[in-house]
Amino acid sequence: MADDGTILVFAPVPQLTITIEQQGETPELHVHPGGQGIWQARMCAALGAPVTLCAAVGGEIGDVIARLLEREDVRVRIVARDTGSGWYVHDRRDGSRSEVAEHPGVPLGRHDLDALYTAALAEGLRARIAILSGAAGPQVVHPDVYRRLAADLNSHDVRVVADLTGDHLSAVLQGRVAFLKVSHEELIDSGRAPGDDDGALLDAAHQLRAEGAEAVLISRADRPGIALLGDDPLLVGLPALQTVDHRGAGDSMTAGVATVLARGGDLPEAVRTGAAAGALNVTRHGLGTGHRDAIAALADRVALTPLNAG
To answer: Could you tell me which residue ranges the Carbohydrate kinase PfkB domain spans (predicted)?
Structure first.
């Protein structure tokens, strides 16, 4: 295991993101590698953590993603896949995000999955923390990959952090996670919570712990989140900031938590830093971006208060 706080980010199928923006008279075209794992890795690096990103890319789109990843402030382990990578085109010229077209990518084949799994396991065994991130479409990566990878990393004392949905969430819980971040929308949509009130979400957090999560953080948009750290339920009060783009806030939150845990920090510090990273991300156009000093200042303003849900 690494002793320098290295974080593995398992980003199995990143996408090429193309965004059209316009601040003045001339439209702007922005092309970046994207997807949950990319945004998480970017935030971990911004917070000063050494990061290894493990991903599979293929086709012409994959070639572009691989070249763009060279510009990221992370170490990259690329696996060449036989099928094409995903992409999306969004239009933000009117200030809101409109989807022009999107393709999550072709599902990974058996040989691709074997190669990716081997690479992720090797890199994970060199890390202190492993973030397991999801794909743009649930069909692209089989859920059992997450169960196996989490179980294998846990058996070698690598702590797993995850933010997944649906069957992929259930699978990673079977492999066990040290810290689970999940949104209240996912809990409601999957039937794990009947509503977004404190009591319903706290019950869901206890159930997630029973299924395999040591600690749980439930994000709740612009309302206080709920954390279950050991036996202590807490309300997580977020600093109030003006929103430019809400996308990526949850991924920045996960990255903030993982970065603190990787350097040996405790759970309350991890939650405060994660909440601050997520809050700052919504003030910016770039997903998974933020300044370390601003996040540290905001973390001091995140309130953790005991939750009494009756």
So the answer is: 23-289
Residue 131 maps to a domain: yes
Spatial distance between the Cα atoms of 275 and 255, rounded to a whole number of angstroms: 10
Bridge partner list, 15: 34, 86
Residue 84 belongs to some domain of the structure: no
Q: Are strands 232-237 and 75-80 parallel, antiparallel or unpaired?
A: unpaired
In angstroms, rounded to a whole number, what is the distance separating the alpha carbons of residues 170 and 86?
24
At 285, which CATH number? 3.40.1190.20
Put simply, whether the predicted model's pTM sits higher than 0.85 gets the answer yes
- What single string gives the DSSP state of each residue in 17-84? EEEEE-SSSS-EEEEEEESHHHHHHHHHHHTT--EEEEEEE-HHHHHHHHHHHTTSSSEEEEEE-SS-
Q: Taking all residues of the chain, what is their mean pLDDT, rounded to a whole number?
A: 92
Count how many domains the chain has. 1
> The domain containing residue 239 runs over which residues?
7-15+35-79+110-306
- Is residue 91 assigned to a domain? no
Over residues 41-45, mean pLDDT: 95
Residue 238: per-residue pLDDT: 81
How are strands ordered across the β-sheet holding 303-306? 75-80, 51-57, 7-10, 129-132, 159-162, 179-183, 215-220, 223-229, 232-237, 303-306
